[in-house]
Amino acid sequence: MKNAVFGVLLAIQFLSRLPVPLACPWTPATRRWAARAYPLVGALLGALVAGAGTLLEPLLPTPLLALALLSLWVALTGGLHLDGVMDLADALGSNAPLEKRFAIMKDPQVGSFGILALVFLLAWKLALLWALLDAGASPWGLVALLALGRLGGVGLLVTVPAARAQGMAHAWQQSLTRGDLAMAAVLPLALSIWLPGGAWLAAGLTVFIMGYGLAMRRAFGGINGDIVGAAIEGGELWLLLIAWSWWSFVTA
């Protein structure tokens, strides 16, 4: 039980900027529980954003509401995964040899491809969130969406090998099995059953992670921490697009 509690707290520390005034041990057992808790942290972040949406909806027009929710969304995660998006975009945009691409991903400076990726990612997220709210979708759907997005990160860690035998992704993988992925999937899949169109989201996430994992194998020979972070951001964008499609065409 102690390992489970530490694992949940570790996941909160790793995936968010929510304060956890406790030093959690970094052990194989706590890493496994942390990975299992990834979707739980996503659901918590989604609930905080949705709660803010419920409070602000009567006060703000839809465009400003969407911007406020996206701003809170980014603030709660500290932009952690956005950094992965920018690093990955710079590496892929360089068309450099493999070793150079890895060096670019480690470089703390951001290049033009990274800036463009960040701008377009946030612009598309804002537009889709705006469109969903305008179509009458409840902001509480973000609870399931953010949980599924982080499940995608766990799926990538379990099913795609690390590009190198070092780094954060490799460290996580040493402790994970498909059983841990199954445990992580319980909450987001349950939320998907509750959410209208949730089955489409779960199926769409599976397609995204399979395609993304294959692309990263070809480009880098596997994954690393930046690639996993970018998968969470890309998965969320993909899920927003699926949610908008469902609300626009199925419920129309």
Explain what this protein looks like in three dimensions.
- α5 packs antiparallel against α6, α5 (80-94) crosses α12 (225-250) and α10 (178-194) runs antiparallel to α11 (198-220).
- The chain has 252 residues and is an all-alpha fold.
- The model has no long low-confidence stretch (mean pLDDT 90).
- Helices cover 78% and strands 0% of the residues.
- It contains twelve helices and no strands.
- The protein has one domain (37-250).
- The longest helix is centred in the C-terminal third of the chain and has 26 residues, at 225-250.
- It has helices at residues 2-15, 28-36, 38-56, 62-77, 80-94, 98-106, 112-134, 141-159, 167-173, 178-194, 198-220, 225-250.
- Average per-residue pLDDT, rounded, comes to 90
Order of helices and strands: HHHHHHHHHHHH
Backbone structural class? mainly alpha
Task: Summarize the amount of helix as a percent range.
Answer: over 70%
Which residue ranges are poorly predicted, with pLDDT under 50 across at least 5 consecutive positions? none
Count of helical segments?
Answer: 12
Shape: globular
- Describe the largest sheet: none
Question: Which labels suit this protein?
Answer:
252 residues; mainly alpha; 0% strand
Itemize the secondary structure elements and their pairings.
Elements: H1 2-15, H2 28-36, H3 38-56, H4 62-77, H5 80-94, H6 98-106, H7 112-134, H8 141-159, H9 167-173, H10 178-194, H11 198-220, H12 225-250
Brief sketch in words of this structure:
The chain has twelve helices and no strands. It is mostly helical.
